[in-house]
Design goal:
Strand content: 5-15%
CATH superfamily: DD-peptidase/beta-lactamase superfamily
Order of helices and strands: HHEEEHHHHHHEHEHHHEEEEH
CATH architecture: 3-Layer(aba) Sandwich
Helix content: 25-40%
Largest sheet: 6 strands, antiparallel
Radius of gyration: 20 Å
Number of domains: 1
Strand order of the largest sheet: 2-1-9-8-7-6
CATH class: Alpha Beta
Number of strands: 9
Structural class: alpha+beta
């Protein structure tokens, strides 16, 4: 080894990352762009809160706008982690408990077999609520109003007895949780006001918002590349445009954020709910929530696609943080090589934040151009493992 190489290796070791591994990660993302799977991406990789890699790739619009650090991505179901954090905060404040029945707060939710559903079951997708994206009698204008959304959900029968199965409900469970935050809020604020005042502003997430103006120049449009565009994906784009339309407060999928803002949130989670400047959650409740709360149940919603793709069954592993815990065993997950207590949140087709507390490791990934279904999870598994490989 030459003397000139030694300072470089020392710097790499001090930073806790291997540059060659970063090169492999970058090349893998670039390959997805070169093969037409996505338009572009933004990532951050960090250890102990120190960023080792921040990079943008490609473009973020079909017209070719270059990716930039201040791009605003629809976080998709990463939004659930923001909502879940506020629900847990309300529990710390004594407004309700994990075992409080939803109908105790919203009486109309007792209808059609839903009277026993609890806050915890809404958080971990075992409530048996309607699994669709849109609800009967609810138009596009109503969909941005949580009170009207919950009134549309309330008469619908349960899909199964609460607690007996796990089936991912993209919108309903977290719409109910968002409405509970509004109903129990001592200041009687809207969901969007609560998120801004109790979460985004205190954590320094200055650009993150539920319901972004469609004319915002930093907005990354909801889109698929030509290679990934099908009648099914085009229909999903239309549904998403309704759910997250201008002014939408959809707690499950409606937040827009930059990669840096989401990194600030993920870091607060890595630090167990307290970043040293703002105590979002108590450590005791965070530690309890950051466990697998679905036992060995599978996510029934994925069964059809899993069988179609020939993917073996795997546990749902939902936490109460709006996402998942890695757990033990070999199966499809984000970060196969992660420690068992690693935890993460995934947004359909395009987004993820990921924390491995054993390695003090944080990874945020946002992409322009959606990958549908399990293809996104398979992609995240590959990228998270490449990012983890950079840890010295």
């Amino acid at each position: 080894m030459s003397l000139s190489a030694r300072p470089l290796l020392a710097a790499m070791s001090k930073n806790g990352f291997d540059q060659k591994a970063f090169d492999n990660l970058n090349a893998s993302i670039q390959a997805d762009i070169d093969t037409g799977r996505i338009f572009g991406a933004s990532i951050i990789v960090a250890r102990n809160g120190k960023i080792g890699l921040r990079k943008t790739f490609g473009t973020v619009t079909p017209e070719g706008r270059p990716a930039a650090d201040d791009d605003l991505y629809l976080t998709m179901s990463v939004s659930k982690s923001f909502t879940a954090a506020l629900v847990l905060r309300a529990i710390d404040e004594g407004r309700f408990t994990l075992d409080t029945k939803v109908a105790e707060i919203i009486p109309e939710m007792a209808a059609a077999g839903k009277g026993a559903i609890t806050i915890r079951q809404c958080l971990n997708h075992t409530a048996g609520l309607f699994p669709g994206h849109m609800f009967p009698g609810l138009n596009a204008t109503d969909a941005v109003n949580l009170e009207k959304t919950v009134k549309a959900i309330a008469p619908l029968p349960v899909a199964y007895v609460a607690g007996t199965r796990c089936a991912y409900a993209p919108i309903s469970g977290y719409a109910v949780l968002g409405r509970i935050l509004e109903v129990t809020d001592p200041k009687q604020r809207s969901f969007s006001e609560i998120t801004r005042q109790d979460l985004f502003e205190p954590l320094g997430m200055k650009d993150t918002i539920y319901g972004l103006d469609g004319n915002n120049p930093h907005r990354v449009p909801i889109s698929h590349t030509p290679r990934e565009s099908t009648p099914q994906t085009q229909a999903s784009e239309q549904i998403l445009s309704i759910i997250v339309g201008d002014g939408s407060g959809c707690p499950a999928a409606g937040a827009w954020s930059t990669v840096d803002d989401t990194f600030r949130f993920a870091e607060t989670m890595r630090l167990r709910g307290n970043n040293g400047h703002y105590r979002l959650l108590s450590e005791s409740l965070f530690d309890y929530a950051c466990k697998i709360h679905t036992g060995d149940l599978s996510n029934d919603t994925l069964a059809f696609e899993r069988i179609e793709r020939g993917v073996p069954d795997f546990p749902a592993n939902f936490s109460l943080l709006g996402g998942y815990v890695r757990g033990e065993g070999h199966f499809l997950t984000a970060g196969t090589t992660a420690s068992p207590d690693a935890f993460f949140a995934i947004g359909g087709g395009s987004t993820m934040w990921f924390v491995d507390p054993k390695r003090d490791f944080t990874f945020v990934f946002y992409s322009a151009g959606l990958l549908t279904g399990l293809a996104h999870l398979q992609r995240l598994s590959r990228l998270a493992d490449l990012a983890l490989a950079a840890c010295d």
